[in-house]
Amino acid sequence: MVRGHHFRPEGGKQMKSLFQQDLKVANVGLQGFADNIAAAGSQVSHLSWAPPAGADAALGWKLACLVGDARIEEANRIAYERYLAAQPRLVDLVLAKDAIAGLAQGERRILHSGPPIAWADMCGPQQGAITGAILYEGWADSLDAAEKMAASGKVALEPCHHHGAVGPMAGIISPSMPVWVVENADRGNRAYCNLNEGLGKVLRFGANSTEVIERLRWLGGEFFTTMQVAVRGLSDANLKPLMAQALHMGDELHNRNAAASALLFKRFTMALLASKVDSAAIQRALAFVAGNDHFFLNISMAACKSMTDAAHGVPGSSMVTVMARNGVNFGIRLSGTGDQWFQASANPVDGLYFPGYTVEDAAADLGDSAITETNGLGGFAMAASPAIVQFVGGTPADATANSRRMLSITLGSNPAFTLPPLNFGGTPAGIDARLVADSGVLPIINTGIAHRKAGVGQIGAGITTAPMACFNEAIAALAAELDAIAAGKGSAA
Amino acid sequence: MVRGHHFRPEGGKQMKSLFQQDLKVANVGLQGFADNIAAAGSQVSHLSWAPPAGADAALGWKLACLVGDARIEEANRIAYERYLAAQPRLVDLVLAKDAIAGLAQGERRILHSGPPIAWADMCGPQQGAITGAILYEGWADSLDAAEKMAASGKVALEPCHHHGAVGPMAGIISPSMPVWVVENADRGNRAYCNLNEGLGKVLRFGANSTEVIERLRWLGGEFFTTMQVAVRGLSDANLKPLMAQALHMGDELHNRNAAASALLFKRFTMALLASKVDSAAIQRALAFVAGNDHFFLNISMAACKSMTDAAHGVPGSSMVTVMARNGVNFGIRLSGTGDQWFQASANPVDGLYFPGYTVEDAAADLGDSAITETNGLGGFAMAASPAIVQFVGGTPADATANSRRMLSITLGSNPAFTLPPLNFGGTPAGIDARLVADSGVLPIINTGIAHRKAGVGQIGAGITTAPMACFNEAIAALAAELDAIAAGKGSAA
After folding, report:
1. pTM, whole model, 2 decimals?
2. Which of A60, A256, A391, B72 is spaced 20 to 30 Å from B189 by Cα?
3. Measured between alpha carbons, how far is residue B321 from residues A152, B57, B304 in Å?
4. Which residues of B make CB contacts under 8 Å with A?
């Protein structure tokens, strides 16, 4: 719409007329141009835009070729169907050494969150948690000795994701820790996650004081044996309907698990009451579960891992099946590029800090819990969870907008996980790395915030995004993989 | 905005010019005028409006005098403060005969929902439930004999509200039924409600088959003795924080109580595990609670009754402290008009019917459960509960709009009960009868739907409104009361 001047309408040429009109500008790209025009008193509409593929021309060309590639479309269809068909069931609670091959009796190996990283490069909370785990295992008898042992390389340190497992924050799983076992009934694949210890001074946030280790011993002892009976006695082990119900009760199943925890508490209670477990042990175990609204998080993570793993390994698929952070780097994996990690520096977390702490005190984005976002939950399902903004910041309108925006980078929405405030539309699910690289819209993640130093613990919670470079790198690798397949020498992902 | 014709601009008079323009009409009041203009092809904006006080000029004059009346403002301030200060605590579960004077041992009296009504005038489900209660009490040994007894007048039938009690749907409380005891710690007043039996074929929806009576006997026997121990052993009996938490978990605490039921289940479990009650009895009791997502409804109702009762009896107050229906009439009470009921025909319920049923099969609006709306919950708190539209109909946007609209007829919003989707604004609370009569905005109510015949049970759930005539009548009575007070002969309400 153009509004003309009415005085001195002399001259008839269009160019002259144009320059006599008030400017109305649509600015695309750099905000700075729009700011200058606005400062000069003219009207300007700014459209956020950045060139695809990080403005890398060669990568942009590859990306353009991948968009609409029939091989990728078909691969994504298969991967996404496997994801939708997944039926996670909570089938057991066992010691990690009895379920995860790399942690078998005698192995001195500890699993951590995120992509691979050497001890010396790890962030404070991850080092603190590993030190605590060495004490817990009894491989050393002081924090000092434990730290020396870790630094010496005498304990193997590997990502949870290399062993079918996930762990929140530091993500530490050592051989004597109990792990939830979630099985995808559709394809039989299993995923593991450790126990939730509560909030505050806990191992996963890097705390490792006596109180933390004592709690771990109780969790690995009486609590473990009690809850193993509870899990094995569940009359209904299906997690998908429970998670769907929790989304209708204000959870997003990453940083808010109050409803899912309460619903599972009911099932555990009925199983334990039907058991022969000593009543006092039942009381102590259920009191711990009842007092921890985040208890379900680790089960949610194992369920999510089992669902995205179902979609992994389809050659040519650009679907993201892992997003994980070690507090230094953020790493992703694609269904079609096998075991490769695509990494970039982990972002800081914008959020609500506990009194006395600021972003200066915080470790960067940390933990395998972004498996919930990879699965369409957490930040992707925030519309279901307006109350979570009291924990991670922002407004309920932001929460809804986040879910809507994520629909622009996913293969679809999951009809099993519906979001009431979006008229019961499914949660955005199946991140397509092509769409992220093309649109510049980054996956959003709700997360806890750990102090950057070992031994302190949680200092807040907030919201962050995955870094773009992971997705650009992944696209380049997928293009190479497709070229190799075309040349008859592709590695089956 | 007026758009002119550009051809034949002859003549300069404004009137002539007006008649040559396209019509743009703002219509206020009767929709029919707007429809005609729209049908003739012109643009019309319709504004819903009806004259205050049901277009009764004399009543309208009284209402105009009451709006801004300093005595009412002061009375409402006191009533509303007492409401806000209320601290409902779940203090006991006892047999009705041991708590409610009118039901003491030997009395043949049964309480029902809504305003007073004679047996012959009652709706089917209320008659069916009373018949069932007579069987349950053992006062008759067949449904036929029970019905004859009720019709003969040998059993006194009185409103729950006349005895400090409330009951959902038919609202039947007979002497041997257990009732929850909720005490307002701020003022010491107590409120009572019966037990929730679940959905479907249950006494409160008018069903009275053997299965229904057997369930009542178990609820009044083993379940009662078990849950009495649970209530008396609660480590935290405060209901207000639990209800506030449930509002953040998708409940509106009338037709959706899934979160509150799950949260209370945790407290009951911990109390029972610490008790000496037989493990099998605990199992059966908790299984019943775990299987009924509406279990908390009756506790919510008693809590609401204790909170609105706190505001009752302030001379001159126009605050509504009771809304209740008996399936024939809808009745309200004001804080400032004592024990008087103001009644009108109960509305039908627009909702979602179970397969095979329609509104033709339905009883009119029924039950004391509108005490939740009187207290700012239920329909008033629907914004917190987008998922409830799957039970009562409409869209999540309707649910939010309902909460916003109710703010126009309430004295304020309750900071203890916040609604996340409304940016954590308080739920609309303290209905002012003046505002209802003046604005024509009717209190909205979420409710279950009973079959109109005795013995059938629930056939759906939906949304309805309170009828305007109650509020007009209440305003007239309040005006008379104020006149009497001014003349020095007012009855202290």
Report:
1. 0.91
2. B72
3. 73, 27, 10
4. 245, 248-251, 258-259, 262-263, 265-266, 269-270, 273-274, 279, 282-283, 286-287, 290, 386-387, 389-390, 395-397, 420-421, 423-424
